[in-house]
Amino acid sequence: MEKRTDKNSYTIVFAIIMVLVVGALLAYLASSLKPMISENQRLEKQQNILYAMGVNENEGTSANFVSTVDAPKLFEDKVSEQLVLEVSGGKITSQKTRQEYMDSNNGQEPYLIDIKKQKSNAKNGEPRKLPLFVGKNEEGKTVYVAPIYGKGLWDAIWGYVAVDENMVVQGAYFDHKGETPGLGANIKQRYFMDDFYGEHLLSESGVFKGITVAKGNADPVNNDKTDNEVDAIAGATITGDGVSAMIKSDLKLYKPYFDNLKKQAN
Amino acid sequence: MGLLSKKDAALIKDPLADNNPITIQVLGICSALAITAELEASIVMSISVLFVLGVGNVVISLMRNIIPSKIRIIVQLIVVATLVIIVDLVLKAFAYELSKTLSVFVGLIITNCIIMGRFEAFALGNGPWRSFLDGIGNALGYAVILIIVGFFRELLGSGTLLGIPVLGDPIEKTGLYGFGYENNGFMLLSPMALIVVGIIIWVQRSRNKDLIED
Amino acid sequence: MEHLELFFKSIFIDNMVFATFLGMCSYLAVSKKVSTAVGLGAAVIFVLAITVPLNWLLDQYVLQPGALSWMGADYADYDLSFLSFIMFIATIATMVQLVEIVVEKFSPSLYNSLGIFLPLIAVNCAILGGSLFMQSREIATLGLATTYGIGSGIGWFLAILAIAAIREKIRYSNVPPALRGLGITFIITGLMAIGFMSFGGMLTGGDEDTAEEKTVEVQVTPTENTELANNTKIEE
Known about the structure:
The structure holds 3 protein chains of 3 kinds. Chain A is of the alpha+beta class. Chain A is 38% helix and 21% strand. Chain A has 7 helices and 8 strands. A 6-stranded antiparallel β-sheet of chain A has the order 2-1-3-4-5-6. In chain A, strands 7-8 form a two-stranded parallel sheet. By secondary structure, chain B is mainly alpha-helical. Chain B has one domain. Chain B has helices at 6-13, 29-34, 39-63, 72-94, 96-110, 113-121, 128-158, 190-207; strands spanning 160-161, 164-165. In chain B, strands 1-2 form a two-stranded antiparallel ribbon. In chain B, a hairpin with a 2-residue loop joins strand 1 (160-161) and strand 2. Chain C is mainly α. Chain C has one domain. Chain C is globular and about 70 Å long. The relative contact order of chain C is 0.18. Chains in contact: A-B, A-C, B-C. The A-C interface holds A 8, 11, 15, 19, 22-23, 26-27, 30, 80-81, 83, 90-95, 97, 114, 117, 120, 123, 134-136, 142, 151, 154-156, 177, 207-210, 237, 241, 245, 248, 252, 255-257, 259-261, 263-264 and C 20, 65-66, 82-83, 86, 90, 94, 97, 101, 133, 136-138, 140, 200, 204, 207, 211, 214-226, 228-234.
């Protein structure tokens, strides 16, 4: 005996209706909630950048952002300039200030540049826009915050790294989309992010080396700041490699800017 | 008769031990392995599954007479995925901090076969109220195993529970570490979760000989 | 070369079962006999080889932010990535259903051996996992996506074949009664996963070398645009 619900025609019609209903429902929800979601994401970006600059409310061992209420005001105060560089072949081909960039891009703020998109554009040979946020940290030192983006074990990982003019790290923030809780997800724990403070991105001779998240290095409490290494998280090798890789590939692009800065200073 | 009849109460009680989804029905293994390195993650995952399985079972139970049998699995998958995505979108809009904690679990919940398994085995053939109880019971049974595994992996792997150090400080060599104890980093790796679950099965079946396979 | 690397990487280093623990449920449930394990394994290879490239096309031309730009400039801003899960699941389900109908029609003998496994496959999280990894790892071309699908399928096939063979043999061993069946299978899988972890270093060593070379290039960076840095306003 064949039931009505066993027929191929019924099955196909049911499937089509199901897909339409679900698609419409999700599309409606996604588009109606989009303004709120992107506002939340905008505030989070500000909090992230401020965190990397050292403007945060860390207590004990936990990492805390400034509140979403204070973030826009603090962001305006602390970030004195948002530069947009275009780099190709290791040279800076153009450099825009925030105002110049906004004038030519319908008022889009530089900190909202989609790093992932810029990365895939670069793969297709298009020029890549690199935002760089300049400001003074709590100690009154000028720091430069650069966004980085890469891949962990499961999905995307990203972050913001603040460096001084010698490319010595002044603060770092990492986040992830879906790394394993308790293992890879610990890259956003304070003990891991704090390890980057004071690390050199350049070797002693001034060559860009990046920072390697190294397993079994002989320096677990991270006293040696010039070894270009921080201690890895046990059990999170691939996520750690992802962090090393994104620091290497993305921060390297900013090297010409800091070379220029140095030339000027001399 | 109390709030629940005997038969209904069994729906909640059985999955806690003798018909446990992980150790007996072999469902929901992937997530049990992936997220139990920390006790906190185990608890968050358990609560999420409790919610999704309870609600999902009721939805599927209500739809059980109109779902075409050939594509029922897909329909079930889509129902779960839609539920989870809606919750994720709403949280992202109204409780962003919470959504960041939970976003990691979204993919894991959708692909969690415990949800699919209970839809298939129970909700398709039973009414909404009984399906709801079955969902809650199985989610609790799943939670028990997750929390046991999470407890041991975090304690032996990092020497902490819920992120609070309980065995002393490994760098300062205080507490147990003063006597030469070391954290077993191996416990944090997923293969050890398999072995811990294997040992739980061993203990459970030694206590209840009826469960032994031949 | 790129294909070969991805192929072996997806079989051994990123093995679906031992590295990412996906598809565990059917792996444990259908591994009592080698013959059924082979059937399910073959079906997984087949379905992954079809659905990963299909979902790649879907991702590239429909779902990604800006993917709809082929429809005209008006559509360039659309971002449908929130639909990924649903669309991938729908593709997989439809494909499994189609394959089942086609195989049933044209090759009843193949249907008899493979057909019963097809419904099981749709719930196998390794299949959806394959498509999601393809998306998150940003596999670049359709060819590579196919290679990735086949490779992951073979990896899963090898895993279930190995455990089924071990389980057939272990019947002659004196396992403690309470551990027989599921218990010992969990523990053996744990040990096998530890074994597979040793593949982990195979390709990463090579990656580091190339990264090292690239960093040397940076050293010779010419800096002509010195005046550009003048624009920095923080000096004031």
